[in-house]
């Protein structure tokens, strides 16, 4: 260790590995080599995984490395559903378990995970730990659990009958389930629904954020920003970008605005080369791609991408087809664009862009013609949902397998819709708003689970609209600013 540190003092470089990182860190901390301590901390951050995050969090308690300690603890919270199955979780103290499970930002899709984690921790050393049930079990947010689960798993667990206080709490929750409003955990991701048109074809200038844990929408509209419709939205580098579409007057624009999620302010960035309404937008390799659309006169086949570092748009190869009101997504390093309208008919065709070769390739056509559809990558497949075939609005959905170059049908949506928002939140495919008949917009929201092949209803938006765009925010330090308040 001394040789490594002396070499670092003279050369400014050091080879930190998994086998020596802890010893280097301890020696550098003892000798007050702050630069070397930081190098080790950076190494530990990159090393974080469900199997070691608790160990890293625990050892940071003995050193003044607040950034690494926070990162490790946030990793534990963010990956709790995997962390609980590791050996490190079983070695935690009761107080540490309590600190973790009491947090609002504990990332669990089902509150049952928290209950099962407590039972696993106690049964690892039952004689020493059964006494901690009265400390830990009340941290479970029972009102967030299904009544059936409480009755079949919680009430009949051997730890619950011995705890009269908790048994009374469980019984009260079951009896008052419809009246008790629980405190949901914070979600790991937020769905934004931006802009669009209402049934009168006005621009309502609305941005709503969907809190999946509370199953509620929150209005976060900034009235100083111009409303948009038929635009694209993308989340990249802590900013939400609104690309193209039209604002106020129904004229296609090439302008691009970005929303700073920390300050809630908008700013203009470099415009696209082409005016584009009904544009397709996706993110790939740290860049925003914009494809097709209409300039107000012609349906476009051109495409371009934006580099945030240089604030510059660069053109790429044109698509094989002119496409307005198409939809696109990125999957495994490629972009897939499907359907749309070419000025004569709704399209059945789809194509794929490879940025390494700057080439578009036609893939198998969809089973249905679709314009105004939604396309999204989900579970390593490309889903094409809804839209119009030129005669009727569709509620059907189909999925493309890139390995077989084939489409197959999946369950249909509950509501036919066209010109709607689509994205994936916590492994569920959401469709938001849109037109459900001629000049009639909907506020309805539903989501699809590929494991069950079932669509379910989610909370309606406050404002029905079509020609909106959706994107998903994740990893925000101020996530609570975009969720329903937990303290009311």
Automatic annotation (TrEMBL):
Keyword DNA repair listed: no
Taxonomic superkingdom: Eukaryota
InterPro entries from the UniProt entry: BACK, BTB/POZ_dom, Kelch-typ_b-propeller, Kelch_1, SKP1/BTB/POZ_sf
Boundaries of every BACK domain copy: 53-155
Coiled-coil positions: none
Keywords linked to the UniProt accession: Kelch repeat, Repeat
Descriptive protein name: Kelch-like protein 10
Species whose genome carries this gene: Parambassis ranga (Indian glassy fish)
Underlying gene: LOC114429073
